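Long-time lurker, first post. I've been practising inverse folding by hand and with some scripts of my own, and I keep getting stuck on stretches where the structure tokens seem ambiguous. Below is the full token string for one chain I'm working on. Before anyone asks, I'm not after the true native sequence, just a reasonable design that respects the backbone. If someone could post their per-position residues I'd love to compare against what I wrote down in my notebook.
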């Protein structure tokens, strides 16, 4: 498939901007946070004071007359799944970036961090249905392909059903994996599906919001466009009554979202579009590593 030059340019620029952060900070944090599936024997070496005596190879020690210990290496072979909401509501932003752009940047950091640790990375894009699936593979070239898909994919639907993506993942992921679920979580009834997936897979909900969604500023007469239904409503945003009603409705929606996430009992990262969105990701990994 031939991609537009502007998409390839975006992917290259994003990789350049991401590489320094991944190399200097993130790859080590990622490696420490997500342990491998176990330990496998690698080699023998001579014992030195301080080594764990339980690692001594007594048969080899008896044959050679010198004390040897067994060396083990971590079996990583991890799978990182990026589950990305591409519904209409992520195509919004009041500051420098739309929510969807923030998600793409965070996906790049995670993807290249995983690639540097030789882990498999996969992608699923969902709206109210599964839109696109990229099976997990290794390598920087594979991450570039995932970023191209994130930039280039044109969703078939504008609506949201987070459970559809989670149910699909539950069916295709046979081995324990790590799932980063990116969404603004403007949805209902996803808690049960999220809880079921998290029982088998390490799951992190990345909640990406825009500050303008919670309180509308005084802009006079404005057209409010619902990105998922296409409905347009003209309102007087200078009206204190309207702004209070709007804020109350958003507060109720937020409370509903919070209940669903609490019921799911998964790890969580809160990201605000228009603010530094890298710090919350780094902060999560530092906390997970005990920092």
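-- Answer (accepted) --
I ran through it position by position. Result:
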């Amino acid at each position: 498939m031939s991609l537009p030059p502007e998409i390839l340019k975006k992917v290259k620029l994003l990789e350049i901007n991401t590489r320094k952060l991944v190399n200097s900070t993130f790859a080590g944090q990622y490696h420490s946070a997500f342990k491998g599936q176990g330990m496998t024997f690698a080699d023998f070496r001579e014992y030195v004071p301080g080594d764990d005596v339980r690692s001594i190879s007594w048969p080899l020690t008896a044959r050679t007359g010198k004390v040897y210990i067994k060396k083990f290496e971590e079996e990583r072979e991890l799978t990182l799944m990026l589950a990305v909401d591409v519904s209409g509501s992520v195509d919004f932003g009041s500051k420098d970036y739309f929510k969807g752009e923030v998600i793409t940047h965070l996906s790049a950091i995670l993807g290249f961090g995983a690639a540097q640790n030789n882990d498999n990375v996969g992608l699923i894009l969902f709206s109210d249905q599964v839109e696109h699936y990229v099976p997990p593979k290794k390598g920087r070239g594979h991450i570039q392909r995932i970023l191209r898909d994130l930039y280039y994919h044109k969703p078939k639907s504008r609506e949201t059903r987070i459970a559809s993506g989670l149910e699909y993942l539950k069916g295709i992921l046979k081995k324990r994996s790590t799932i980063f679920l990116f969404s603004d979580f403007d949805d209902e009834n996803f808690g049960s599906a999220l809880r079921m997936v998290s029982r088998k897979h390490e799951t992190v909900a990345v909640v990406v919001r825009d500050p303008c969604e919670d309180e509308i500023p005084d802009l006079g007469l404005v057209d409010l466009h619902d990105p998922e239904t296409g409905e347009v409503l003209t309102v007087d945003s200078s009206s204190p009554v309207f702004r209070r009603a709007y804020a109350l409705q958003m507060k109720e929606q937020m409370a509903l979202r919070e209940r669903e996430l609490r019921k799911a009992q998964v790890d969580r990262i809160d990201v605000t579009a228009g603010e530094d969105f890298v710090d919350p990701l780094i902060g999560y990994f530092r906390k997970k590593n005990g920092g």
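A couple of notes from the structure itself: Residues 207 and 270 are 5 Å apart (CA to CA). The radius of gyration is 23 Å. Happy to go over any region you disagree with.
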